[in-house]
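Teaching note: in complex prediction, the entire set of molecules is handled at once rather than each chain in isolation. The prompt given to students was simply: 'Predict the structure of this complex.' The entities are:
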Amino acid sequence: MSATIVVILGFVMAWIVQRTNIRNAWTLDAVAFIPIAIPSVIIGASILFAYILLPIPVYNTIWILLIAYVTMYLPYGMRFASGGIIQIHKELEEVAEVSGATLMQTFRRVLMPLMSPVLIAAWLYIFVMAVRELTASLFLAGPTTQVLGTISLTLWEEGGSFGNVAAISVIQIVPW
Amino acid sequence: MLTIESLEKTFITRDGAGSPPSAVFLDLPQGKILTLLGPSGCGKTTTLRSVAGLEKPNAGRITIDGQAVFDGAENIHMPANQRGIGMVFQSDAIWPHMTVFENVAFPMRVAQDRKYTRAEIEEKVGRALEMVRLGGYQSRPSTQLSGGQQQRLALARGLVREPKLLLLDEPLSNLDAKLREQMRFELKRLQMELGITTLYVTHDQGEALALSDEIAVMNAGKVIQRGSPYELYHSPNSEFVAGFLGSTNFLPGKVEQAVGSDGTGVVGTPHGPVKCSFGQSANAGQEIMIVIRPEDVVLAAEAPADGTNTFGGKVSNRIFLGEVIDYLVDVAGEEVRVRARPEWDFAIGAQVNVTLPAAKCVAIASQS
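The expected output is the structure of the full assembly:
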């Protein structure tokens, strides 16, 4: 799910940066890119603190993990989408507009099909990274919201059931 | 049909510099082709894109069929997808993920104002493809068409909903010379058959002359001259228009004898007096530029009996082009370009007499 959100968000944001005349749209690009420079330990910890203090009840739910993953992987989604959009000639969209298509129709019938290889690649890449994620999850996973990474760490710490750890690792590797 | 009044568009670049101010006035009668001709950056494409609604001008007014689609003062800006225009871009902008059929059907599939039945779509797509001679290609992937076919496909897509106005943005510039010539005739034929009002943008003067009912020559955001291709070619109003439409000889001079009743006057040049025709009145002493087309210059071995406008010169270069020979003739240190019939055969270095027929020497106000 985080992969899907990241891909859609990255696609829309990249389109805004590349194609609209909104002033300082590049700041969106820059802001979306920042998380790549921050270690995931810091992201995990700061999201933990932020949502303990903020009155939004996501702590100890699966949603806080989703927020963390989206934050961490947005730069990748954005880069993938930017590269894809740059390769599509602007006139392909403009001719759709002149032909009478609304913005949504242009997105759905022209941009999405042309971008689909790029978007699928981005989705797979982010999905695989999210499945393997451990560092930020350590801070954010609760007793009922364990992810593969934290499960295998717990299993290993609490008595070295290496068989189980190995099994989970295989699951994490398989998507590749 | 289409009117453009004092249209202005300023581009602000990153470093804050703006483009020169512009004010474009145009009106395009029903069923005619008007060409915007000019060098890169003169504002012709911006004007076209403003009409399409892809660009928002800073000021001015554009009406299509009596309806204002843009008005800076009243803050009207109709989105491009509601203007009901057909447009063909420079890159033919064919959607590579669709078949030929789907490309042409697109404008009907996304139509907001009415629903098309499947039979209707099939019928109209078939007709549009037939019109551009692509009948039978419906199920082909659009990427498997040749360059010329893709351009025709783009045209079919622009025409399929029978728009009131067709905008063509250098549609032939990506084609090779031979195809371009073919497509010129195709475009002209289609436009005549359909009687569709067309605004055409190009920097290619040959295309402009061949296709247009009228040409508007633009430079630096302004229309410099507007008229039929014949008018513009034979009586340009400025050096810019003369130089842009075909190749030209320029000869600076000063009016010696005021314009007579026959519209001719005498201009003093460094080479001697030249009789020429004036488009507007001129006073003695006024600085003037004489314009003469290379194909209007006459070359002869013997000086003609009437020595008016005849000068001695020496052939400094020649290029044989088949149907014509291009000469560069040195007349007292000044090079005159001559496009001569092949029977006027002179070797390089030969002495020739250069005659500039008075009726073909057009005097225009000097800009320098």
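Point out the following to students. Residues 112 and 161 of chain A are 46 Å apart (CA to CA). Residues 103-132 of chain A form the longest helix (30 residues).
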